[in-house]
Design a protein that fits this description.
Elements (H helix, E strand, L loop, with lengths): L1 H6 L4 H19 L3 E13 L5 E3 L6 E9 H9 L3 E5 L6 E5 L13 E6 L3 E16 L2 E2 L6 E9 L2 E7 H4 L4 E3 L3 E2 L7 E5 L9 E2 L5 E9 L1 E14 L4 E3 L2 E9 H4 L8 E5 L6 E6 L1 E3 L5 E6 L2 E6 L4
Parallel strand pairs: 1-4, 7-11, 8-12, 16-19
Antiparallel strand pairs: 1-3, 2-7, 3-6, 5-7, 7-10, 9-15, 10-14, 13-15, 16-18, 17-23, 18-22, 19-21, 20-23
Length: about 300
């Protein structure tokens, strides 16, 4: 004991106190109640071989079951934990990476009892970069009376990186179906690519926009029995009714009746007798006159008594 005290040299009292405190702390930690919990450790894969990419599903994190002093475990649960796996030197094909207790750099006293998944399995495959057309896919139809007259996607092409075997013969990528069943005016919709089970990485993260031009549906309709009026002089007309062929919005034309239309002949400054006059039709600006049958009618004006 004297030899021990002698070896402490100057300030032996302070040094002895520090030694006693260290021993007490060691005993306190050593007898601290152990705690067991599961830690979520973010998985980071770095340095994939040039021209290769991972094609298997990789979990975003590892579930690591640990046991250790309660105070240490509490600090670990509050920290952001990550585990890096270096893929440098890996070849193409399937790889199985065991994850043991020495894989993780935890503080002394913390033991790893289980890791999931373990081993970590991944597949590397040759990759390529390719530019593909973007094909918009529409679902449903606009309401009755409206139709789609144009569709444009922006951008029309997109660069992707993926396994050679998956995209070597690929010509285009479709969008997830866009619902157009409620559209009655030109609209721009945000789209997403339907990557299905493809292992693709987009070279450009710009938004995908689809411009859909929707207009009232135009139809052609023939309406018979439209009455013809003589203005300003009254006259006998033969025939007194005509047939009109019109073009215009479906919603406006479908319920149109003969009495809703105005056909007339101009009898201004005409002398009594028989005349052949052209039939004119007064239409709303949204409707177009295609044909009048007959285009001319016989008009007879009587002498004033």
């Amino acid at each position: 004991m004297k030899d021990l005290l002698g070896s402490l040299g100057r300030n032996r009292g302070l040094k002895l106190l520090a030694l006693l405190l260290a021993v007490a702390l060691w005993f306190a930690v050593g007898v601290e109640e152990p705690t067991e919990t599961t830690l979520s450790v973010a998985l980071e894969l770095v340095n994939p071989p040039h021209g290769m990419m991972i094609t298997s599903e990789i979990p975003p994190s590892l579930q690591v079951r640990v046991i250790g002093p309660g105070s240490v475990i509490r600090k670990l649960t509050q920290a952001r934990l990550a585990q890096t796996i270096d893929l440098a030197g890996f070849k193409r094909g399937r790889h199985s990476i065991p994850l043991g207790s020495k894989t993780f750099n935890f503080p002394r006293g913390v033991q790893v009892t289980r890791v999931q998944p373990n081993p970590l399995t991944l597949t590397l495959a040759p990759s390529m970069v390719k530019t593909l057309q973007v094909k918009p896919v529409l679902e449903g139809k606009p309401p009755e009376g409206y139709e789609i007259t144009g569709v444009k996607v922006r951008p029309s092409q997109i660069g992707v990186k993926g396994p050679y075997a998956e995209i070597a013969d690929l010509k285009f990528l479709s969008t997830i179906p866009l619902d157009v069943s409620q559209l009655t005016v030109p609209t721009t919709l945000a789209g997403d690519l339907d990557l299905k089970n493809l292992h693709l990485t987009l070279q450009d993260q710009s938004p995908l926009l689809v411009d859909i031009n929707v207009e009232p549906k135009r139809i052609t309709r023939t309406i018979s029995g439209v009455p013809v009026a003589a203005h300003p002089q009254k006259a006998r007309l033969s025939p007194s009714k005509v047939t009109l062929t019109l073009q215009g919005p479906m919603l406006q034309l479908k319920d149109l009746k003969p009495g809703d239309l105005k056909a007339a002949v101009d009898t201004n400054n005409l002398a009594p007798g028989r005349h052949q006059l052209n039939v004119s039709v007064n239409l709303p600006p949204t409707l177009t006159l295609v044909r009048v049958q007959p285009a001319t009618i016989t008009v007879r004006l009587e002498k004033s008594p």
